[in-house]
């Protein structure tokens, strides 16, 4: 990758928080600042110096005002930084003005996040989605036809699957966007077919969703031995990974791990990752994995809900999983139980709480009902009594060789009727 060829970049971090209500961020300034630092470190850059700016409202030309830009220039020089990273989004004009005033390359929050995604994309699907998001971000930033992206220089903001784009002009970028969008549509269709197949096999799917770094992949690994990559870093997982979790009832459930969320996640990325995240919108259950040891537990929870809403997945049943209980202080668990009476407290690291998670998954499966048309042969009426006991008979027709019934039964019984060969047509 291009970024690997250029000398390590030393970044000056500028966290920005506006106080005016219309522009405000509910997060405390210190947390905005530490999330920016985590993002920067996750992108592989060195954090040379950090500045926190609290302003009333954004200034149209430079976001932070000219006086502040001068201050940044001096601080950057003192810290020998060669790139300035803003923890806010900048318009094209703001970015240009700031670069002029500061005299260094300026990267905004969306570009930083896109860069991390670009480094993490391994699968074709991941690469297509990231490149599409990068190009859609860059297109309106090309001032005029013919201006080359290479003016951005190497390093941060130019790495990843989209790096060959450097020499492209607007027209070629549009063509490439169209091609990638078509490829993505193809991917979406393939995923849809795979989901159809699972639906027809009646396998329930639970999708692990949650804030980045909450421990989703660690939990999937601990439960199923999946071997997914985990790290104390943001956006470790990009590609969905599905594994079967056997449960004591002899059936099981499919668990799908996927990309983590972030507060103010760039819309470009949500759009681009729609194909991957569609799993969540159709899940039988969402396991919302939270880092119970985080000081921003509830803020992160609402950030996740916002993304789920954006994806049309907020109507799915949710099981709250409060992870990392091994890091809690005495007394924390009681507090969490009061805050999340429906939640499961567990530690993906130690295995504490896995039993109750499995019980809750079983309880969820027990609630899933299926309608079916069934024919019970004479002599096998015991099945019929089970159907009456565990489910409901919607229609009944007594025939010479057996009893034909339309039933609504729990998934487990449905599976057993199917295995016994009594299922006629699913309805
Ligand atoms: N102490 C402790 N650490 C945990 C636990 N679960 C996960 N972690 C750590 O938290 C960090 C993030 O874990 P991941 O499983 O990669 O998190 P993720 O939710 O998949 O993150 P993304 O893929 O980036 O969205 C890693 O350093 C894990 O070792 C836990 O129960 N206890
Ligand atoms: Mg992960």
Architecture overview:
The protein has helices at 2-5, 29-42, 66-78, 92-102, 109-120, 124-138, 170-200, 216-224, 267-272, 274-281, 297-310, 332-339, 354-367, 381-390, 411-419, and strands at 10-18, 46-55, 83-86, 105-107, 205-210, 241-246, 252-257, 285-291, 318-323, 344-345, 369-377, 392-398, 402-410, 423-426. The protein is an alpha/beta fold and 427 residues long. Helix 2 packs parallel to helix 5. It is elongated, with a radius of gyration of 26 Å. The protein starts with a helix and ends with a strand. Mean pLDDT is 88; it is low at 1-5, 144-154 and 161-166. The structure holds guanosine-5'-triphosphate and magnesium ion (MG). Residues 210, 212-218, 230-232, 234-237, 260, 323-324, 326-327, 347-349 line the site of guanosine-5'-triphosphate.
Properties at a glance:
427 residues; alpha/beta; Rossmann fold; 4 domains; 6-stranded mixed β-sheet; 4-stranded parallel β-sheet
Q: How would you summarize the topology of this molecule?
A:
Layout: H1 2-5, E1 10-18, H2 29-42, E2 46-55, H3 66-78, E3 83-86, H4 92-102, E4 105-107, H5 109-120, H6 124-138, H7 170-200, E5 205-210, H8 216-224, E6 241-246, E7 252-257, H9 267-272, H10 274-281, E8 285-291, H11 297-310, E9 318-323, H12 332-339, E10 344-345, H13 354-367, E11 369-377, H14 381-390, E12 392-398, E13 402-410, H15 411-419, E14 423-426
Parallel strand pairs: 1-2, 1-3, 3-4, 5-7, 5-8, 8-9, 9-10
Antiparallel strand pairs: 6-7, 11-13, 11-14, 12-13
Helix pairs in contact: 2-5, 5-6, 6-7
The protein binds guanosine-5'-triphosphate and magnesium ion.
Magnesium ion (MG) binds at residues 216-217, 236-237.
């Amino acid at each position: 990758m291009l970024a690997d060829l250029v000398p390590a970049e030393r970044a000056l971090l500028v966290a920005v928080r506006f106080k005016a209500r219309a522009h405000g961020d509910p997060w405390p300034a210190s947390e905005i600042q530490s999330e920016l630092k985590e993002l920067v470190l996750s992108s592989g850059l060195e954090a040379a110096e950090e500045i926190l700016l609290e302003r009333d409202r954004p200034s149209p030309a430079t976001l932070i005002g000219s006086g502040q830009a001068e201050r940044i220039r001096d601080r950057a020089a003192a810290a020998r930084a060669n790139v300035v990273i803003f923890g806010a989004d900048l318009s094209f004009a703001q970015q240009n003005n700031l670069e002029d005033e500061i005299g260094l390359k300026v990267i905004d929050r969306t570009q930083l996040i896109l860069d991390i995604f670009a480094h993490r994309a391994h699968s074709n699907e991941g690469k297509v989605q990231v490149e599409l998001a990068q190009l859609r971000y860059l297109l309106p930033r090309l001032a005029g036809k013919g201006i080359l992206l290479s003016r951005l220089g190497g390093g941060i903001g130019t790495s990843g699957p989209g790096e060959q784009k450097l020499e492209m002009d607007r027209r070629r970028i549009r063509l490439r966007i169209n091609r990638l969008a078509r490829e993505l549509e193809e991917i979406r269709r393939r995923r849809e077919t795979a989901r159809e197949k699972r639906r027809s096999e009646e396998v329930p799917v639970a999708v692990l969703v949650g804030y980045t770094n909450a421990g989703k992949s660690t939990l999937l690994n601990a439960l199923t031995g999946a071997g997914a990559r985990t790290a104390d870093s943001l956006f470790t997982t990009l590609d969905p990974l599905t594994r079967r979790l056997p449960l004591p009832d002899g059936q099981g459930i499919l668990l799908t791990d996927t990309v983590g969320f972030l507060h103010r996640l760039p819309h470009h990325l949500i759009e681009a990752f729609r194909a991957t995240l569609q799993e969540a919108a159709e899940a039988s259950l969402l396991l919302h994995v939270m880092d119970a040891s985080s000081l921003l537990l509830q803020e992160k929870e609402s950030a996740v809900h916002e993304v789920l809403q954006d994806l049309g997945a907020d109507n799915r049943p949710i099981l709250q999983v409060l992870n990392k209980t091994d890091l809690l202080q005495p007394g924390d668990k009681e507090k969490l139980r009061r805050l999340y009476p429906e939640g499961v407290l567990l530690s993906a690291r130690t295995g504490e709480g896995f039993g109750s998670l499995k019980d809750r998954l079983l309880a969820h499966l027990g609630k899933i009902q299926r309608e079916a048309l069934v024919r019970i042969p004479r002599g096998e009426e015991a099945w019929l009594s089970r159907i009456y006991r565990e489910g409901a008979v919607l229609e009944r027709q007594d025939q010479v060789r057996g009893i034909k019934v339309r039933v609504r039964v729990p998934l487990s019984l449905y599976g057993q009727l199917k295995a016994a060969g009594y299922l006629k047509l699913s309805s």
